[in-house]
């Protein structure tokens, strides 16, 4: 039987974990969520949620994953001593499946833009109409979604070192460098400071229970906590690596890239006289307009969408790895077959989300499209619920000696982490759930 794979180095693990978190969570979803939910107020809540709640739960997933040395379901079975905590692993598996089903749709949109940038000269003034045309075209969105899933399958089937780690090692540094360049250019546009103020000067009238919940959901979504992705990745980590520093690095990278994405988009939004509440299409409508202000703008546009594809893939392969890892369990020689089978199933489940802006646009669930419902089910319900259960498991089921042995931090930090995952994180999640339910009923 083939032995369980491992990361070749700490930096490989951190880049892969950061890739899972950074992806579209930071670059696509963070800007439009901030734009539609109060700008800087959302940013402040997001940072607080990341450090006070997201980081401790991320570390909890690292602890459970490395202790279990297996997929999430198997790891929780081993550590829970016959109790039903392995159902948390099944919840994470289901959420990963659903997330990737609509995430791959966005990956397809990126591929459509990239193909147009490569082979046609895009009319910047028509990007709003172009986005609407792309997402409403059933043949294009399904073909692009299929190509994106094929890329994800190809990487995951190659394993941890040969596929996921190798891809993350060169995709993530390129993404970071290019976003710095874009942010600098965006900040030099006339009127850009209005966007900076929107991003950093809070308007507390925008503070609502819904904004708090959405910021917390964004912290979960962007850190990939609550779906056992980080638990799965940590199961491939050698025992000598320190988990606390890795979790902090991943959290910091996630915040930095999110802020950089905001600095690319919002200064340009205000400089070009457009609205920050564009929604999910923000990067597809606004960013191309930025490139019209830059010499060789089409070349930069091609590079940007290639790197957007990189970012999307690093998150996609994390979601697919959760499903594949649970599917093969200890039979690691079946990775290739499992990657193709599960990848195909995810594509099929994602078809309604892909068509929800076109021929299925009249289908409404709780007032939103099928795509919107999949997003709501995962980021507002499934991920916070998973994070709550993982926090309780690490805080109350695992003993202090077990967690201290895995963390190997200063005793004060160990105790602080235990307090956060036992009390602060669960209480915060429960309160925000209650506030959201009250707002839904009002």
Automatic annotation (TrEMBL):
The alphabetized UniProt keywords are: Membrane, Transmembrane, Transmembrane helix, Transport
Instruction: List locations, semicolon-separated.
Output: Membrane
Q: Where are the transmembrane segments?
A: 12-30, 42-64, 85-114, 134-156, 168-187, 207-231, 252-274, 294-320, 340-361, 381-398, 419-438
Q: How does it sit in the membrane?
A: Multi-pass membrane protein
Q: Which Pfam family name is an example for this entry?
A: SNF
Q: Which PANTHER family match?
A: TRANSPORTER
- What protein is this chain from? NSS family neurotransmitter:Na+ symporter
Q: Return the NCBIfam families for the record.
A: Na_transp
Q: Where is the signal peptide?
A: none
GO CC field = membrane
């Amino acid at each position: 039987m083939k032995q369980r794979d491992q990361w070749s180095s700490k930096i490989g693990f951190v880049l892969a974990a950061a890739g899972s978190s950074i992806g579209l969570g930071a670059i696509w979803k963070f800007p439009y969520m901030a734009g539609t939910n109060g700008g800087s107020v959302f940013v402040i809540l997001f940072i607080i949620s990341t450090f006070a709640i997201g980081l401790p739960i991320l570390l909890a997933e690292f602890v459970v994953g490395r202790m279990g040395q297996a997929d999430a379901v198997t790891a929780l079975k081993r550590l829970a001593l016959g109790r039903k905590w392995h159902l948390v692993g099944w919840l994470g598996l289901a959420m990963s499946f659903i997330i990737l089903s609509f995430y791959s749709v966005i990956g397809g949109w990126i591929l459509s833009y990239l193909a147009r940038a490569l082979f046609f000269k895009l009319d910047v003034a028509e990007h709003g109409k172009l986005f609407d045309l792309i997402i409403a075209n059933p043949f294009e969105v399904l073909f692009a979604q299929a190509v994106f899933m094929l890329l994800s399958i190809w990487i995951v089937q190659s394993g941890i070192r040969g596929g996921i780690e190798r891809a993350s090692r060169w995709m993530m540094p390129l993404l970071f460098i290019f976003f710095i360049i874009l942010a600098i250019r965006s900040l030099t546009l006339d009127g850009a400071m209005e966007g900076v103020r929107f991003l950093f000067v809070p308007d507390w009238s925008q503070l609502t229970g819904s904004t708090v919940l959405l910021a917390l959901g964004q912290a979960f979504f962007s850190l990939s906590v609550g779906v056992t992705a980080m638990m799965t990745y940590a199961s491939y980590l050698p025992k000598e690596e320190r988990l606390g520093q890795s979790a902090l690095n991943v959290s910091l990278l996630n915040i930095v890239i999110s802020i950089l994405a905001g600095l690319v988009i919002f200064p340009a939004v205000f400089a070009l006289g457009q609205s920050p509440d564009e929604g999910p299409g923000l990067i597809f409508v606004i960013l191309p307009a930025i490139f019209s202000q830059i010499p060789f703008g089409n070349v930069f546009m091609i590079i940007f969408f290639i790197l957007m594809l990189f970012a999307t893939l690093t998150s996609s392969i994390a979601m697919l790895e959760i499903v594949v890892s649970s599917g093969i369990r200890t039979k690691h020689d079946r990775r290739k077959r499992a990657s193709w089978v599960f990848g195909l199933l995810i594509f099929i489940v994602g078809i309604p989300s892909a068509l929800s802006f076109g021929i299925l646009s009249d289908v409404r669930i709780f007032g939103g499209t099928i795509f919107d419902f999949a997003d709501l089910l995962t980021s507002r319900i499934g991920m916070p619920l998973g994070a709550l259960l993982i926090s309780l498991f690490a805080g109350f089921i695992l003993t202090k000696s077990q967690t201290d042995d895995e963390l190997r931090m200063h005793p004060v930090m160990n105790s602080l982490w235990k307090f956060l995952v036992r009390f602060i994180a669960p209480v915060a999640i429960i309160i925000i759930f209650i506030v959201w339910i009250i707002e839904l009923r009002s």
